[in-house]
Amino acid sequence: MRRKHGVACDLHFIDAQEVLIPMSVRRFALALPLALVACNQSALTRDEAVAALEESSLESQASAVTSGPVEISTNFTIGSAVEKAAAELRGFLAAEIPCAKVTIEGATITTEWGAAGGDCTYKGLTYSGTSSVTIRRTDPKTLQVDHTFSNLSNGKVKVNGTANVTWSGAEHSRHVVHELTWTRLSDNRTGTGSGDRTQTLLYPSQGLAGGIRIDGNRHWSGRSGEWDVAITGVEVRLQDPCPQAGKYTLTTPGDKTISLSFSRKSEDVIHVTLAGPKREFSFDVRQTTISDS
Fold this sequence. Notes:
Helix content is 19%, strand content 46%. By secondary structure, the protein is α+β, with helices and mostly antiparallel strands. It has a 15-stranded antiparallel β-sheet that branches. The protein is globular, with a radius of gyration of 20 Å. The model is unreliable at 1-42 (pLDDT under 50).
């Protein structure tokens, strides 16, 4: 482990789910005093570390709820008129998700997840609520769509809000600006946030399966106050339990800075460093375990 200001703390975990699943953050918190007791208490506190993990995890979960509806809403012919593109997309959605009721008005397609009866599943996630997409622009080089979410839920988190997405074919990227409110269904914990980020395919020929790079920023208001996060070169693959590269820099309600950085050590091991004022924790993440490094 690296040391900063002459102070170091070791953190040991048994089960990766303790950190990676929001419902388990409380159990993870029980381990923190053991790691922090020998550290200078005027620096990053136990409560701040726990709050950072809880808040950032819940905010990420809320943003993830919208990923499926955003991804599935790009299946139309580039360069066609917006209303023609909307009709094409409506046909695709109706065929792809028969569990949903899909309607169209002008260039806006509305999807009521589960309205046709039974569970409504897309790529392994079960949705309820409503999402709509309005096609604004279908130029050969640029696609622009606006999304609206009304009580959209994956069974764990419910969100309401909007996302404006601009796709660049030349750069194999999309620019996403969102404003959301969310509720965690297990305990009704809520938050409100916004974000502005660019997502770029790591390997365009592989599509999303090859992973994406994310750069940008997010801001949200949660139970513990106002939070900001800067996202720098974060690389995410669907098969990994956490990002494989890059850095999150969080600013806490107490105006302290906490960083989470990621680097891949091997195909199934990712090294993670959590650093705050005078404290730094370093550990390895696998699909099933986390251990101090």
